Amino acid sequence: MPDELDIRTTIGDLLDSQTERYADREALVHVETGTRYTYLEFKDECDRVARGLMALGIEKGQHVGIWVTNYTEWVVAQFATAKIGAVLVTVNPSYRTHELEYVLKQSEANALILIGKFRTSDYVAMTNEVVPELKDSTPGELKCSNLPFLRNVVYIPSPSEPGASAPDGMWSWEDVRRKSAEVSETDLAQRQASCDPDDTINIQYTSGTTGNPKGAMLTHYNLVANGYYSGEGMKFTEEDRLCIPVPFYHCFGCVLSNLACVSHGSTMVIPSEYFEPLKALEAIQQEKCTALHGVPTMFIAQLGQDRFSEFDLSSLRTGMMAGSPCPIEVMRQVVDQMGASEITIAYGQTEASPVITLTRTEDTLERRVSTVGTVLPNVEVKLVDPETGADTPVGEQGELLSRSFMVMKGYYNLPDATASAIDKDGWLHTGDLATVDKDGYYRITGRLKDMIIRGGENVYPREVEEFLYTHPKVADVQVIGVPDERFVEEVMAWVMLKPGETADEEEIREYCKGKIAHYKIPRYVKMATEFPMTVTGKIQKFKMREVAIEELGLQKAAGIETA
């Protein structure tokens, strides 16, 4: 197991050093496809794809978007791009055309890796809509007026059609693998050696209060350190096997899962392309997983399966629950019914790579169900009065600020947003309210930021509001979060129509379909004639929430206690 000094390294060098230690141990298993790699086999595949990407002309520092569900190729691409110093831009598979275009343009992406279809999403069709020049282009020679940086698009066929040819204008994944022969191992080694732990290697998009998503620039050191310390919190060793149903595009998947495993020689077990409760349970049983990750809604879904009692989960020891507040009762059920007696809870945000605080396996159950733990090693946290900036005493609520080498470099091409998030002294302002007890255990008590967390997905009302403003009948709109027993929060829109116009809830929701991610589409729509306001005209969203709870009968959901 690497010592603490080893974490100041690049992701490529981390994989190489761990391969030397654990060459014959399993690195990755994709249960749904039957794919299995030892660490040596996984490293070899990553090297092959890395050389193939170099052959496409992808240079150090260029940006490679990845719009892929939980395929094996996603993990390979994560390490392959890191080895050549290309910046991986993670794209949420739920994104539609409007969001895809924004991310590709804002990130100045030079390449895009995508799959064909997933559920109702046709990625090829959406890409052709955003990049109309693609289908008439030679692979690698794309020239798009709207996306001037984009040159290469790489297509990964679905497991049901292996070897399928790529659509017009695109490389196939197999093309990339074959082109590896054009680049020597020496050339790859030289490229990898040119990478520095402080280089940006990942841009993770997180929605912002000003509307559009912001790309957090994260370094090798950010991610390796956070993955390592998270694995330490769960006491990972090379004997551990982690079931990963959480999405790779999110830090939960690519950092707290993949890098936590690789930094400890543990095994990454991917149950399926996307989260399916039964497949996750089957994977735990089949692969004898010792750890399980998930947002609370995932654990709730697994516990609620009719066949839950059929599965042998006796191998489970630990894991992590994160992404949104965890209902205390759910945490108890995970311990009692799933047997994960050392389950942990993490708190953080993408801008912090992401974990800031974490409960430990040795913490009492009470602390693990009622707090978000203590700070990671080498991380500073303080609570301040949001109005004055003064430190708040133990036990009193304040905004949580964090400072460490794991804080992002900033938001890509957004200096003003960066300055708003990270002050001149290097403190990241999380926008979350918290208390801390005398023993250093934190409890999240609320949010300054106007953010909705729906099943682990961050939804910023301003982004949804700005989209709904594009509806020709909408005069004004306010979006709030309302309590939900399954997802913790759901999205609700209060809509005021233009004079003389008529529309109902379904029309508003239908307008959103195919244009914004499904989790951002309001579950509830209230056709309103006015909004609660102060005498100075400031919208009172807390009063809107109170009205919604009463009108929708959400009192029970509103009373759920969380850590």
The overall average pLDDT, rounded, is 93
Q: Which CATH class of the domain at 39-195 applies here?
A: Alpha Beta
Which outline best applies? Answer: globular
Query: At CATH's second level, what is the architecture of the domain at 39-195?
Result: 3-Layer(aba) Sandwich
CATH topology of the domain at 39-195: Rossmann fold
Distance between the termini: 32 Å
Side-by-side strand order of the widest sheet: 2-1-13-12-14-15-16-17-18
Count of extended strands:
28
| Helical amount | 25-40%
Low-pLDDT stretches: none
Main sheet characteristics: 9 strands, mixed
Q: Helix count, per DSSP? A: 18
From the alpha carbons, calculate the radius of gyration and give it in angstroms. Answer: 23 Å
Structural class: alpha/beta
| Strand coverage percent | 15-25%
Characterize the structure shown.
This protein has 563 residues and is α/β, with parallel strands linked by helices. The longest helix is centred in the first third of the chain and has 17 residues, at 39-55. The model has no long low-confidence stretch (mean pLDDT 93).
